[in-house]
Amino acid sequence: MEKIGIITDEAADLPREIIEKYQIAIVPVKLDWPELENLPGENTFQKMRELEKKGIKSFGKTSQPSPKDFIDKYKYRLERFEKIICITLTSKHSGTLNSAIQGKNFLPEEDQERVYVIDSLHASASQALLIFKTIDLIESGKTAKEIVKELEEFRSKIRFFAMFEDPKWLEASGRISPLIAKFFRTMANRGIRALMTLRHGKLIPGGIRTHAQDTVMVFFKQFEKENQKSRQENKKIRIVITHGDDLASAKRLKEIIEKEYANARVAFINIINNVVGAPTGPNTLICAWCEV
Q1: pLDDT band at 106 (very low <50, low <70, confident <90, very high)
Q2: From its phi and psi, is residue 32 left (phi > 0), alpha (psi between -120 and 50) or beta?
Q3: Which tens digit of pLDDT belongs to each residue from 245-271?
Q4: Domain 2-29+64-156: which CATH class?
Q5: Contact residues for 94 (Cβ-Cβ < 8 A; gap 6+)
Q6: How far apart are CA 154 and CA 134, in angstroms?
Q7: Domain 159-291 carries which CATH code?
Q8: Of 31, 34, 29, 33, nearest to 66 (Cα)?
Q9: Around Cβ 152, how many Cβ atoms within 10 Å?
Q10: CA–CA gap between residue 112 and residue 101 (Å, rounded)
Q11: Of 40-44, 186-190, 220-224, where does mean pLDDT reach its minimum?
Q12: CA-CA-CA-CA torsion for 270, 276, 279, 284, nearest 10 degrees?
């Protein structure tokens, strides 16, 4: 039996090869959006664009996994691993953490002691970085208790930034108020865009950028601004980029960063999951990073 296994939810946007390589169990997220079902498109974002073209005013509803979803994964992984570390989507915007804890509490007492649940306080790209940190710590030989303690300290060191093409999806989901959404639209019409960030797990404005028609360069300048010290000290930086069906922008951002920063490496690029993607919308770009 192997020592420590990892469980997370679909919001981490991990690519299939990472999931398989490190035997990570994924708890699926739920999206209820009947209007999308018969629309053409290879992914949710393409279907959302079709929805707009047809003038259909509809917004999806996301729901957290159930405690049973976690129970099933716990039982499955406990057959192979001595201990389990379960890392969930930020509790500030989802009830996933509660379901994970409830699921753990339904296990026999001896199995409950083998499961550790941690709130990532992150989502998408930044949640993935916390999982990479977990893998690093497992491979270094740390115990599950030691890993959880280090992860709780490490969460605040991960930087997350996102930019959305249209705030209407966030507004419809209740993540931002109509007043803030109106402000974002007014600013966008003047070439001014808001970068969003996560602070203590909550999505908040992370700064206003003028002349922001080129989203990729907005991200790069933010990365450059925040990593001057890391560059001077030649510290390694791990990056994850996720996108709302805008692979070209994600690849361009990767190329610019890795060209300008020899100490930076993009671990992967992936499309954003449904639970994050439905409220953020098509062409969303997310970039997260941390020192390794």
Answers
A1: very high
A2: beta
A3: 999 999 999 999 999 999 999 999 999
A4: alpha beta
A5: 11, 64, 88, 275
A6: 10
A7: 3.30.1180.10
A8: 29
A9: 12
A10: 10
A11: 186-190
A12: -30
Least confident of 155-169, 185-199, 232-246, 267-281: 185-199
Q: How far does the chain reach from its first CA to its final CA, in angstroms? A: 29
Find the length of the chain. Answer: 292
Residue 247: partners with Cβ closer than 8 Å, 6 or more residues away = 269, 271
Strand residues in the chain grouped as ranges (E)? 2-9, 25-27, 30-32, 61-63, 81-88, 115-119, 159-163, 193-199, 202-209, 237-243, 264-271, 285-291
| Residues in Cβ contact with 196 at an 8 Å cutoff, skipping those fewer than 6 apart | 161, 162, 163, 164, 203, 204, 205, 206
Q: What residue segments make up the domains of the chain, in order of their start?
A: 2-29+64-156, 159-291
Show Cβ contacts of residue 290 under 8 Å, excluding neighbours closer than 6 positions: 129, 133, 154, 157, 158, 159, 237, 238
